[in-house]
Design a protein that fits this description.
The chain is an alpha+beta fold. It is built from 16 helices and 10 strands. The protein folds into 3 domains: about 150 residues; about 140 residues, Beta-Lactamase; about 130 residues, Histidine kinase-like ATPase, C-terminal domain (Heat Shock Protein 90, 2-Layer Sandwich).
Length: about 550
């Protein structure tokens, strides 16, 4: 650009002395060119370029006698694009606007110094100056669009290819973790053990969000069971810590059932990036137990733990999504495949029965037996589809899902189903509820298929982090050693172990079997599970 304006200046004026302005413009451009990233020298150089260009425009316009009055400024004014475009491409919109203002003032001053009557009064000078100011404004405010246009487009990754890459990385990372675990409950229990060494207390818990403005208890310790406050819209240190992402110390318990007395509570938010993923609650039955030094020590432990817990929760979500999607896929394939084919087989048997000649009683009886067996298999498939599609509704809860399943299977098998539910408003983690539902489904299915029972008792007690599901029947127990029934028991045991629960299988008096899965420590009150062992009729 310097070479261009130098050539135009000589052509328009024919006076080599006007090249002094080009030399001065070269000196003014040096700071912005040499120190282009300096916060002071680079902008100062661009302002110097604009000022020199404006002053030179008036002098060159006056010296260009061979060009129409004032239009000689066109020889120098194209250089205005250099500082304005540079500022725009560096995303300095405010600086660009200031450069335009300085350029306008410099043009007026340059015209006045060159002779106000001959230059400023000429329409050509005003037109040339206005034209380049307008072009400079366009450059300044349209450069962002230009920059995006010139920037090469990033290739859009294919969704499945990207998912494969991320899952491969996740598998590698999971194998390298201590204990190779991504279990939120296990990580939470380990965190409480670390905190016990830093700040001993009487009660502690790790909570995470479950949706709907509520929290779920991932792990807790304490001399006795604690009913923590799990509502985020309540007036509590828990809600304040979640909203502000800052530790909160309170002089009252964060449990809804605490008897009172002197208490110190400390609530530490677990923050990963800008998102709160959980809370740690520490309590002790003493006043002033959490001074700033203790709070600092606790936050030094919970800080790194937040990232570990977030990874575990995200992995849990991915695993749940993948499991649910696979269950739905299997349900669709069974419904559209083997179930439809069995129905057609049933229709074929019906047609064969209808066309039998008279006297073929033995064949008719065999066809009726075969038709009954096909009907039984179709019924089993429909119940399997119902089991695959059953999920815990986040609004209905675990007890409602178990009740719906037990009622459906009980109706199909002619069982009388007796329900006993005691469910808290607090919720278990979604993955834990899903596993408990599958265990209950397997126990109910075993009772329906193998026990030969007339009655089914289903008890569901949920008071997070404690839960107990019991399924009892009055059938023949485990006298038959059916392989498929034993395989179902193995699956239940594996599911219980996955959520750190305990599976118990005991005979029921006077007949039948009781299958129970227990999670956590029971509350200090009589358990409703005793009702399932009551004499029949009570």
């Amino acid at each position: 650009m310097l070479a261009l304006v130098a050539a135009l200046t000589v052509i328009f004026t024919g006076d080599p002395r006007q090249l002094g302005w080009i030399a001065l413009l070269t000196v003014a451009a040096l700071p912005a060119f040499v120190a282009r990233d300096h916060p002071v020298w680079a902008p100062a150089g661009r302002f110097a370029e604009v000022i020199v260009t404006g002053l030179a425009a008036g002098s060159v316009a006056a010296a260009a006698d061979s060009v129409a009055a004032g239009f000689g400024a066109e020889a120098v004014l194209p250089y205005l694009a250099v500082p304005l475009l540079t500022a725009a491409l560096r995303r300095r919109a405010t600086e660009g606007a200031a450069l335009l203002g300085v350029a306008a003032v410099a043009l007026v001053v340059g015209g006045a110094l060159a002779g106000p009557r001959t230059v400023l009064a000429s329409a050509g000078y005003l037109a040339a100056g206005g034209q380049w100011l307008v072009l400079g404004a366009i450059v300044t405010f349209a450069a962002e669009a230009m920059r995006q246009f010139l920037q090469p487009a990033e290739p859009t990754p294919q969704p499945y290819a990207e998912a494969t890459r991320l899952l491969t990385q996740l598998r590698s990372v999971a194998r390298s973790l201590p204990g190779a675990t991504l279990d939120p409950g296990g990580i939470s229990e380990h965190l409480l053990e670390e905190l016990r060494a830093v700040s001993p207390g009487d009660r502690a818990a790790v909570l995470s969000a479950s949706g709907g403005g509520r929290l779920v208890v991932l792990a807790q310790t304490g001399a006795e069971r604690v009913d923590w406050e799990t509502t985020l819209d309540a007036d509590s240190a828990i809600a304040d810590a979640w909203a502000t992402q800052q530790p909160h110390v309170a002089s009252r318990s964060q449990a809804r059932t605490h008897p009172g007395g002197e208490v110190s509570s400390l609530v530490i938010p677990l923050v990963a990036g800008v998102r709160t993923i959980g809370l740690v609650i520490l309590e002790t039955d003493a006043a002033g137990a959490y001074p700033p030094a203790v709070v600092q020590s606790v936050t030094e432990v919970t800080g790194p733990a937040a990232l570990r817990l977030e990874a575990a929760l995200l992995f849990d979500d991915v695993r749940s999504l993948a499991t649910n999607e696979e269950r739905q896929r299997l349900a669709r394939e069974i419904h559209d495949g083997v179930a439809q084919e069995l129905v057609m087989v049933g229709y074929g048997i019906d047609n064969a029965q209808a066309t039998l000649p008279e006297g073929a009683d033995e064949t008719a009886e065999e066809l009726r037996t075969l038709r009954g067996e096909v009907t039984r298999v179709i019924t089993e498939l429909r119940l399997s589809l119902f089991e695959l599609r059953s999920e815990v509704d986040r609004n209905g809860g675990l007890a409602a899902a178990i009740a719906e399943y037990a009622r459906t299977l009980g109706t199909s098998a002619g069982l009388r189903v007796h329900f006993t539910f005691d469910e808290s408003t607090a919720r278990l983690p979604a993955a834990t509820e899903a596993e408990l539902l599958r265990i209950a489904q397997e126990a109910i299915t075993n009772a329906r298929k193998h026990a030969g029972a007339s009655n089914l008792w289903v008890t569901c007690t949920v008071d997070p982090p404690y839960a107990e599901i019991e399924v009892s029947d009055d059938g023949k127990g485990f006298a038959d050693n059916r392989p498929d029934g034993r395989y179902g028991l193995t699956i239940m045991a594996e599911r219980a172990e996955r959520i750190r629960g305990r599976l118990k299988i005991t005979p029921r008096h006077p007949s039948g079997t009781t299958v129970a899965v227990v999670l956590g420590t029971p509350p200090r009150r009589d358990s409703v599970r005793d009702s399932v062992s009551a004499p029949e009729g009570e």
